[in-house]
Write a sequence for this structure.
């Protein structure tokens, strides 16, 4: 098995999971459209919105991969700090977009929040590992 494959798997799984969630979210009822705008059921599938958010999610995973660079990672605190620090305002900006938004926008935000939390936990683990390595 090539060296790059195991380090690429988490990014591919995160991307596939995010795309699957976006596609599934397109099938959910848009409460704002139903109750506020008064559009009766059945609502059409939001193909263009799901497609745009799928492209956005793909770009986000690519940027995350480019920053983390898992092939040369080796307990790099700086790269994870960049992900956490730049990810926080990006996450908060997307949180504002979820108000009155279709379900795929809200689930995209949840995916972003999960990815940010994984990066935060990874940062803590790397810091603990580096401290433990220095003490040993």
């Amino acid at each position: 098995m090539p060296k790059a494959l195991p380090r690429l798997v988490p990014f591919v799984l995160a991307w596939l999971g995010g795309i699957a969630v976006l596609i599934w979210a397109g099938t959910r009822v848009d409460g704002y459209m139903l109750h506020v705008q008064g559009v009766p059921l059945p609502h059409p599938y939001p193909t263009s919105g799901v497609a745009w958010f799928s492209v956005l999610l793909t770009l986000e995973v690519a940027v995350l991969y480019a920053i983390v660079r898992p092939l040369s990672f080796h307990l790099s605190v700086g790269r994870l700090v960049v992900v956490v620090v730049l990810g926080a305002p990006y996450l908060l900006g997307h949180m504002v977009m979820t108000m009155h938004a279709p379900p795929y926008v809200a689930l995209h935000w949840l995916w972003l929040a999960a990815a940010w939390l994984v990066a935060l936990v990874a940062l803590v683990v790397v810091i603990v590992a580096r401290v433990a390595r220095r003490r040993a």
